[in-house]
Amino acid sequence: MKTISVLFVCLGNICRSPTAEAVFRERLLRASLSARVSVDSAGTAAWHVGKPPDSRAVAAGARRGYDLSGLRARQVGREDFLRFDHVFAMDRDNLAHLRTLQPAQGGARLALLLDMLPQHEGKQVPDPYYGGDDGFEQVLDLMEHAADAWISRWQRELS
Ligand code: 4NP
Asked: How far is the CA of 158 from the centre of ligand 1 (A)?
């Protein structure tokens, strides 16, 4: 049985990428694709390793039915390119950092998460860390949109 593994990467792994992980996990469950598509998240920086997601991300996610509470931050490594089929960066800084870790040949497909969404090509997921609560809502809106688009594509690929 073909399966797909996906890693979401931001800077700290406490705001954007754990939100992505929780939103995709929930929507994969609803699409009955949990056994076929696995998701994980990591950060390019090591500052928050071992910590739970930012309490604002946990609260914003919970209001929409996404559970981020059990997640713990980790740092992305070179080996992740061999373990995952897709590595999705939240912004261009993350993408540039990931390119320095990517093996010259083979390994995960690396892209900006929003790049395949019509009207969002090249767009980044804005970092909500230093802003207000609306930033976390905007991240959730973008993740729900991205999850629907990618899950439709995976449904076709896996059927
Ligand atoms: P994230 O947000 O990359 O979406 O997890 C950030 C988290 C922490 C910091 C910056 C962004 N920080 O500077 O500690």
From this structure: 34
